[in-house]
Amino acid sequence: IGTYAYSWDNKRWNNLLKEGWIVVWRNRNHTTQKYNIYKVSFKCKQLINRMYRIMLGEEDIPTKPRNNSIMKGKTYTDVVLQTAIDHLNKDKTRNHGV
Predict the structure, then answer these.
(1) Burial track 20-54 (b if 16+ CB lie within 10 A, e otherwise)
(2) Sign of torsion, CA 40 16 53 6?
(3) Is 68 helix (H, G, I), strand (E, B) or coil?
(4) What is the largest CA-CA distance in the chain?
(5) pLDDT tens for residues 28-52?
């Protein structure tokens, strides 16, 4: 477990907090702790774990239009991303680089 400090603009930070990606771990007490301490939420941990499973090849990126709006192919960018997703899903050597 590591500690990372990033410079965030207030709008981004407030959006992450409001949408539940970051939660307060310990509130400030106005005497000894000057600031709240935050941690990533359970929702964020699930997303990170899923991204790792996809990168390691344990899970594929969804290719059904119902589960992945990119697969509808409405724009040129969507079509390019579809091709990239197909290549990624076919590449079963993803986990050998770890």
Answers:
(1) eebeeeeeeeeeeeeeeeeeebeebeeeeeeeeeb
(2) negative
(3) coil
(4) 56
(5) 888 888 888 999 999 999 999 999 9
Q: Sign of the C-alpha dihedral, residues 83, 69, 10, 33?
A: negative
- Exposure on the CB side of residue 17, measured as CA atoms within 13 A: 12
Q: Could you tell me the two tokens for 1?
A: 């477990």
- Distance CA(84)–CA(94), nearest Å, equals 14
Q: How many residues does the chain have?
A: 98
pTM, rounded to two decimals = 0.70
Q: Which two tokens stand for residue 74?
A: 């409405």
* SS3 category, 5: coil
